[in-house]
Automatic annotation (TrEMBL):
Keywords: Cytoplasm, Glycosyltransferase, Purine salvage, Transferase
Pfam family, one: Pribosyltran
Catalytic activity: AMP + diphosphate = 5-phospho-alpha-D-ribose 1-diphosphate + adenine
Protein name as it appears in the record: Adenine phosphoribosyltransferase
Transmembrane segments: none
Gene of this entry: apt
Amino acid sequence: MGAERSGPVKRTLESYYTTIEDFPAEGILFRDITSVLGDADGFKLAIDEMLKAIEGEAIDVIIGIEARGFMFAPVLAYELGKPFVPVRKAGKLPRETVSATCTLEYGEATIEMHADAFPPGSKVLIVDDLIATGGTAKATAQMVEELGGVVSSFLFVSELTYLNGRDLLEGYKVHSLVTF
Ligand SMILES: O=P(O)(O)OC[C@H]1O[C@H](OP(=O)(O)OP(=O)(O)O)[C@H](O)[C@@H]1O
Ligand SMILES: Nc1ncnc2[nH]cnc12
């Protein structure tokens, strides 16, 4: 028998994640994105797969949600030549804002976006690292629509399917690359 050939092992995006038990509270399985970003191949794979997921979609503006959405949305905005708009936790943005409150897997949050972030009618891609209950994403869509924008789709690196966040986003197009 001849020698077996083996090329470089192709890792999945999921394999770059680290899982931490009981963080930040007991009973939570925390899916840590920093180990994806902390590996150059992992980060490249994430960006490549994100770009592939939205290939061909009409997008005018890319929103990233603080803090972990900021790790991805600006890279996509740069790659696609589109403006980046931040959604931030309350009290951080300097100009007039719109706001929405959401319930999360652990806690509650109020988030804000600048009222002049994009012109009415803009097609908006909403990016975050993860969807859990979907509360943050839904609150972001409410703000986009309050400003006359149209949500083209949501794009998450990962999805906690057991929290059924997709149900809250019924009627919207939702992309996620890794499911836990
Ligand atoms: O689907 P949901 O239940 O709304 O949860 C998802 C959100 O929770 C996490 O952010 P977190 O609020 O922990 O803030 P961080 O990005 O600043 O760590 C995550 O990055 C999403 O933004
Ligand atoms: N289980 C989890 N892991 C990582 N980020 C999260 N955000 C909300 N729930 C999370």
